[in-house]
Write a sequence for this structure.
């Protein structure tokens, strides 16, 4: 039925946006616009960090969608917005919108792992220098940032356990920083660690948390904020564990 197709399409668009870092108010607005452009204006939507709910007033039609993954991929958010605008302009039908949304996760281009790793290394070494590091630590910080980022990616893929990937990545960064100083390849452990952990810091999640809270979405904002704090705590515990085990004698 049309109502079921409208709800499933709206929830699919909302789920993609929530899984890739969109704000709650933007997700709700997109879902409601799709429903309105499909000819159903009396919809009610409720979006949280872990689930989306949508129903049609004065009817028995209601659906929910779980949000399993939460990452940052603005390209997929742009793709959903583009499809929503095409549907509003009557360039595609509701069924075409539904089918193309199903392909967004597969067809949306993304940077390869090598480019992401190189970017993490570049961010690490430049921020290390900005925070007071020296050129002697530039190359070691680049390499350590790359290795820490790769460690987090593969631990997340192998174990599929929340927050453990950030702990391992931070542990790898701290360990490599300490031993690079001990063997004379680098100069300052603190500057290397500060720079190398920056690609792991959940800055976008914290920003979105505050934006959700300020826009009145207290539940989602609080949930995102707590998740960001757990990520930051996992990074801190990873570094602290490294310093506790191997940090003796390091200035």
């Amino acid at each position: 039925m049309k109502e079921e197709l409208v709800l499933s399409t709206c929830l699919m668009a909302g789920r993609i946006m929530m899984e890739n870092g969109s704000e709650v108010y933007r997700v709700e607005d997109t879902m409601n616009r799709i429903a309105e452009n499909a000819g159903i204006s009396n919809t009610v939507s409720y979006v949280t960090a872990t689930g989306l709910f949508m129903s049609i007033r004065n009817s028995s039609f209601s659906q929910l969608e779980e949000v399993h993954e939460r990452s940052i991929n603005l390209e997929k958010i742009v793709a959903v917005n583009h499809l929503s605008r095409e549907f509003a302009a009557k360039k595609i039908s509701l069924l075409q919108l539904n089918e193309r949304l199903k392909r967004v996760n597969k067809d949306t281009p993304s940077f390869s792992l090598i480019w992401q790793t190189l970017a993490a290394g570049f961010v690490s070494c430049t921020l290390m220098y900005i925070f007071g590091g020296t050129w002697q630590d530039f190359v070691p910080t680049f390499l350590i940032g790359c290795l820490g980022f790769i460690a987090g990616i593969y631990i997340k893929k192998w174990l599929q356990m929340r927050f453990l990937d950030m702990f391992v990545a931070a542990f790898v960064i701290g360990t490599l920083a300490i031993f690079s100083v001990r063997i004379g390849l680098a100069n300052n452990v603190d500057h290397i660690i500060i720079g190398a952990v920056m690609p792991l810091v959940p800055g976008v999640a914290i920003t979105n948390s505050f934006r959700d809270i300020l826009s009145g979405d207290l539940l989602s904002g609080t949930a995102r904020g707590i998740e960001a704090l757990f990520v930051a705590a996992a990074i801190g515990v990873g570094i602290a564990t490294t310093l506790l085990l191997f940090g003796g004698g390091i200035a």
In short: The chain has a mean pLDDT of 89.
